[in-house]
């Protein structure tokens, strides 16, 4: 049975005396197969699965889509039910921030300044602050996050490590449509034409990752993006698997962010670099 609660008091009573491990999947709602995959992986392991649905105002900048972000709670609860989640926590803003905007917040450090952090000032501070609060409110032993938001996942891992949070962070590979488009709640903003343009992101990453020399990886990906006029590139970056500088050889990550119309999309893939390739 899936129970829906809205307040932190009801959450605390629902969690009272839960036996065994508590897993949390944090979402902003408008749930799709990507979110559902996180729930399935959580369900395989944990005795009790909590899904949070909260559009966190703290992680949206001025002019971003906080107001128009899709809110589809009824469908979201049905999806959680179908995946066998035990509890859905869908708090109002005042239940997460009862004292207004917090004055003590998380500081993501240097890793929060690059890539998404450079384009979205304050985003990662707001994200880490709510993740920390929701980890404590849900009393999670293990938390599942998608690789789709790779920098977010890396920062959450680092927060847990650096601040000794008693929680295991598990990353889950990106779920895609058959044609390669990474699932995202923001895909619903795209017109059919824009959706076709948006496919250039995953195609560029796939073409790039087929190479193993850094120059060739970036050239192949840039070529695809340049050929698609509907895509306004924000960044294309080749980094190490930890988002540090790309190594000469070994595991790496290729990441892209771009605007299609007014919708900002991100995607990334793993790849392996080889010396002298
Ligand atoms: P969001 O609702 O966009 O904040 O995402 C909630 C969680 O779902 C985050 O951990 C995301 O990384 C994850 N997620 C979103 N899209 C996907 C996807 N296509 N595949 C896997 N995980 C995803």
UniProtKB/TrEMBL annotation:
Which Enzyme Commission numbers does its entry carry? 6.3.2.1
Annotated compartments: Cytoplasm
**Which positions bind beta-alanine?**
59
**So where does (R)-pantoate get bound?**
59, 152
Molecular functions per Gene Ontology: ligase activity
Q: Where is the active site?
A: 35
Give the metabolic or biological pathway: Cofactor biosynthesis; (R)-pantothenate biosynthesis; (R)-pantothenate from (R)-pantoate and beta-alanine: step 1/1
Q: Which residues bind ATP?
A: 28-35, 146-149, 175, 183-186
InterPro entries given for it? Pantoate_ligase, Pantoate_ligase_C, Rossmann-like_a/b/a_fold
List UniProt keywords, sorted A-Z: ATP-binding, Cytoplasm, Ligase, Nucleotide-binding, Pantothenate biosynthesis
Job of this protein: Catalyzes the condensation of pantoate with beta-alanine in an ATP-dependent reaction via a pantoyl-adenylate intermediate.
Q: Which NCBIfam families match?
A: panC (TIGR00018)
Instruction: Show the PANTHER family listed in the entry.
Output: CYTIDYLATE KINASE/PANTOATE-BETA-ALANINE LIGASE, PANTOATE--BETA-ALANINE LIGASE
Q: Which family does it belong to?
A: Belongs to the pantothenate synthetase family.
Write the protein's name: Pantothenate synthetase
What is the species of this protein?
Answer: Actinoplanes sandaracinus
Lineage of producing organism: Bacteria, Bacillati, Actinomycetota, Actinomycetes, Micromonosporales
* Gene name in the database record: panC
């Amino acid at each position: 049975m899936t129970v829906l609660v809205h307040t932190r008091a009801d959450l605390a009573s629902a969690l009272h005396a839960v036996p065994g491990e508590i897993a949390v999947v944090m979402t902003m709602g408008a749930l799709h197969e990507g979110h559902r995959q996180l729930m399935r992986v959580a369900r395989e392991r944990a005795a009790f699965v909590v899904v949070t649905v909260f559009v966190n105002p703290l992680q949206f900048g001025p002019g971003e889509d906080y107001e128009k972000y899709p809110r589809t709670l009824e469908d979201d609860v049905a999806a959680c039910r179908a995946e066998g989640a035990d509890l859905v926590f869908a708090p109002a803003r005042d239940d997460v921030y009862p004292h207004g905007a917090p004055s003590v917040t998380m500081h993501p450090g240097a890793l929060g300044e690059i890539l998404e952090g450079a384009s979205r000032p304050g985003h990662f501070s707001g994200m880490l602050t709510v993740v920390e609060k929701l980890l404590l409110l849900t009393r999670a032993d293990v938390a599942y996050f998608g690789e789709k938001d790779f920098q977010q996942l890396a920062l959450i891992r680092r927060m847990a490590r650096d601040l000794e949070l008693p929680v295991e962070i598990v990353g889950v590979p990106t779920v895609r449509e058959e044609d390669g488009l990474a699932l995202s709640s923001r895909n619903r903003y795209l017109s059919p034409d824009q959706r076709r343009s948006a496919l250039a992101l995953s195609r560029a990453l796939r073409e790039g990752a087929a190479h193993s020399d850094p120059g060739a990886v970036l050239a192949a990906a840039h070529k695809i993006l340049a050929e698609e006029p509907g895509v306004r590139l924000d960044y294309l970056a080749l980094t190490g698997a930890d988002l540090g500088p790309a190594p000469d050889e070994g595991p790496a990550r290729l990441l892209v962010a771009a605007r299609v119309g007014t919708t900002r999309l991100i995607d990334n893939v793993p790849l392996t670099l080889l010396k002298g390739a």
